[in-house]
Amino acid sequence: MDLRQLKYFSTLVEQTTYTRAANTLHISQPSLSAAIKKLENELGITLIDRSSRDLRVTKEGKILYQESKKLLNHYSHVSDEMVRLRQQGPLELSIGLIESSMFFVPDILTHFKKEYQDVRVSLLETLSLSDVEKALNNFDIHLAITNQYIHKEDIETIPIYEENLVALIPPTHELSKRETLQISDLEGENFIVCKEGFQTRRDILSAFSKSGVKPNIQFEIERFETGCSLVEDGLGITVVPENYVRYAKQTNCSIKNIHGADISRIVYLAYDKNRYLSPIVMRFIALVREFFDDTGLTKR
Questions:
Q1: Residue burial 257-292, b: 16+ Cβ < 10 Å; e: rest
Q2: 107-140 pLDDT, tens per residue?
Q3: 218 with 237: CB under 8 angstroms?
Q4: What pTM, to 2 d.p., does this model score?
Q5: Which residues contact 13 (CB under 8 A, 6 or more apart)?
Q6: Which of these, 75, 66, 123, 63, lies nearest to 98 by C-alpha position?
Q7: Distance (Å, whole) CA 63 – CA 83
C-alpha cells in the first residue's frame, strides 16, 4: 500500500464512478480498476461492493477512506511546507545587536512583521568583536548590526551609517554650561569608557591620542546604559554615540558635540556570506539598507 494507491481509492470514493475518477486522475479506467483490485489483494479485504451497478464502498472501505484522507492531507501539508521552506527558509530570524541600534531596529521590525507575521525574531546583544564573531561562527545569529569591522573573508561587512560620538556631562558640571567643547576640556576629568575589546573604546582613545590628551579613566563599562547612569550620578564624563542619547536614552545630562576632533564611528551590517541565508533573512537585510537610504542617515 502506497500513497498513490490511497489517492486512487479516495478519488474513486469521492467521484462515485470509475469513469469520473479516472478522468480526475488522468489515467485510464482499466488502470484505475486494476489499481483498486491490487490494493484489495494486498490488504486482503474488499473495499468496493461489486454486487451492485452503483459504486458502493464496504464498511472496511469507508474506514480506509477516512484514514487515507488524513494521510493524504498530511502529506499535502508536509509537501507544501517543504516548498515554503525552500522558498523562504525557516520562520525565524536571529539578529545580533549593539546597544545603540535600538533607535532604528524597532521601526524596521514593524515593517518586517507586516510582511512576515509568523516569523519568530530573536534579538541577541553582541557588543564586542569576539561576541559578534562567536555568534556568527556558531550560527547563533543570521546577521549582526555592529560597529566592528570584521576582517574575515567569509564575513560580509556592509557600512550602513556613520554617527558622531558626543560627550555626556553631569547636569551640574561646569562643562555643561560651555557652548562648545574640545577634547582638551576633558583632560583630568573622571572618565568612563568601554572596556577592552570594544571598538567604541578604540575610536574614543584614538581621538584623545591624536589630540595629545590622556584620559583619566576611572570606570570601564560594557553597556552605554551603565555609563549614562554613572554620569547622571555625577561620577564622571563619558562619550557615547549620538543616536543612543538622542533617540534611545532619556537623560537630564548635558549632551555636547566635541569640536576639533574627528570622533565618530561607522555601524555595519555583517553576515556570513558562505552560509545559506533564506529569503526572510535577505528581506530583513534589504529593509535595513532601505531604511538608511530613505532617512539619509547613511552618511553624516
A1: ebeebebbbbbbbbbbeeeebbebbebbbeebeebb
A2: 999 999 999 998 999 999 887 888 898 888 888 8
A3: no
A4: 0.67
A5: 57, 61, 65
A6: 123
A7: 31
